[in-house]
Amino acid sequence: MGQRVLMKGNEALAEAAVRAGCRFFFGYPITPQNEIPEYMSRRLPEVGGTFIQAESELAAINMVYGAAGAGARAMTSSSSPGVSLKQEGISYMAAAELPGVVVNMVRGGPGLGGIQPAQSDYYQATRGGGHGDYRTIVFGPATVQEGVDVMSKAFELADKYRTPVVILGDGMMGQMMEPVSLPEPLELAKLPLKPWATTGAKGRRPNIINSLFLDAEECEKHNLALQAKYDIIQATEQMAEIAFPDSDWFVVAYGTTARICREAIQEARAQGLSVGMVRPITLWPFPVNAFEKVVERAKGFLTVEMSLGQMVDDVRLAVNGRCPVRFFGRTGGMVPSDEEVLAEIEKMVEGRTR
């Protein structure tokens, strides 16, 4: 890591992508992520890269498809309604087994909603989001520094598994400024070879990148091969943080909400309450292994989200009925306060219902 610098979240993620070897960015403006394409428009030409403001979100994701198919590290970014428009292209990339990174700085919804932070795109990100049987790896960083760190990991896993990877932030993370340590730039010559890429067929048989399977048996065979890959990802790529693992009660939160919950947990522990936290870093694969480490001693879990309840479904699946799982959320761009979370922790410990 190099010198620590003060950077806005959006710009830090953009710089981290450049240092991870991203040389192609295609995007379209939407608040609150506009600093990412703005930064890339200045930065990529300095390193011999290409920035294109596409005519639409649909065009942008299909440009990522093309650049990824040619073997480049490519990415796009947007916010909730724009990412919805990209879903067809993301499904195509998953089917064609093309690596790429998509950043979603989530805003309130549904519809156009507002520009305030939210986490209501969790279902979309973790369930594939588009049509067909597929998954995308999804990171939910809690700090600007962690966003920088997972950007390198996102490109690494995208190449390793030939799959799209989503970084799920929010409007607050994109706009806040924090000190970050940026990694040294990767040498492009040392990036993994991609013998499957469409780089010209001189001296070899042509590569074909495709997501169309008109024969049902062939399509099923392809889907089963994709699922086998997803099973490996689910078994090997889970990431989570457990704070105070010997606690009796646990709060579950990710991203910006986890920062708020951390404050509430400190206040609860100062009152003598035995409360810890499970913080998913990968939202898919969901870190069920982290829950296995604490669930046998846990008396209950409180899931806190900036939504009306989406990740809580995965928490319930991980806990599998072994203890109660409660939920507290704000939505539409409203951010929960540490006082509200503390009150919900106290209700959980006292056994009171909402």
Summarize the structure in words.
Helix content is 40%, strand content 19%. With 354 residues, it is α/β, with parallel strands linked by helices. It folds into 2 domains: 233 residues, Rossmann fold, CATH 3.40.50; 110 residues, Rossmann fold. The strands form 3 sheets. Strands 3-2-4-5-7-6-12 form a 7-stranded mixed sheet, with helices on both faces. A 5-stranded mixed sheet has the order 9-11-10-13-14, with helices on both faces. Strands 1-8 form a two-stranded antiparallel sheet. Strand 6, helix 7 and strand 7 form a beta-alpha-beta unit. Helix 1 packs parallel to helix 2 and helix 3 packs parallel to helix 5. The longest helix is centred in the middle third of the chain and has 21 residues. It is globular, with a radius of gyration of 21 Å. The termini are far apart. The relative contact order is 0.13.
Here the CATH topology of the largest domain equals: Rossmann fold
Q: Whole-number average pLDDT? A: 97
Query: How much of the sequence is in beta strands?
Result: 15-25%
How would you spell out the order of helices and strands? Answer: EHEHEHEHHEHEHEHEHEEHEEHEHEH
Strand line-up of the largest beta sheet: 3-2-4-5-7-6-12
- Give the helix tally: 13
